[in-house]
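Lecture notes, continued. The same structure-token format from the folding unit now serves as the input rather than the output. Read the line below as a description of shape only.
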């Protein structure tokens, strides 16, 4: 006998979010496929952090990514070699450097986001229109609860 869960059931909601996240990860992986030979998904995440938050010190970047500074250094080294990020003197302290996104890095981020947006748009278009508004409200509440800042300017997509 199958037990029906209510929408307020945390386990049911968690299962639904996990299932949706599997789909979103698959979309993300496909959207980066065009640059797959150039960068890895973790390296792409580094580019996205820099695009969204601006230049950062290596230790802050490592903390934000949840990796050791040595891992972040290796990621940055590879991205410097690919001309996607650069090290610049920190304007606040010339003894430190900050990591910045280059024009090439920004081009890669925007291209991947455009492909991701197109695929997600195709998926959303297949949803019944009556369910779309509820999804918007649920996702906004979910991201707010998770502390993710809203994306303010998507005009470049």
């Amino acid at each position: 006998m199958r037990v029906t869960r209510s929408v307020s059931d945390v386990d049911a909601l968690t299962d639904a979010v996990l299932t949706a996240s599997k789909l979103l990860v698959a979309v993300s992986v496909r959207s980066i496929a065009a640059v797959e030979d150039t960068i890895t998904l973790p390296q792409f995440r580094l580019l996205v952090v820099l695009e969204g938050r601006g230049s950062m010190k290596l230790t802050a970047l490592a903390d934000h990514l949840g990796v050791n500074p040595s891992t972040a250094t290796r990621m940055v080294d590879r991205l410097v070699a690919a001309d996607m990020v650069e090290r610049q003197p920190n304007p606040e302290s010339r003894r430190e450097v900050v990591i910045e996104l280059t024009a090439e890095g920004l081009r890669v981020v925007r291209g991947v986001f455009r492909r991701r947006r197109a695929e997600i748009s195709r998926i959303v278009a297949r949803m019944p229109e009556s369910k779309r508004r509820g999804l918007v409200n649920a996702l906004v509440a979910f991201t707010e609860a998770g502390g993710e800042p809203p994306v303010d300017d998507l005009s470049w997509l």
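Point for the exam: The chain has one domain: 3-146.
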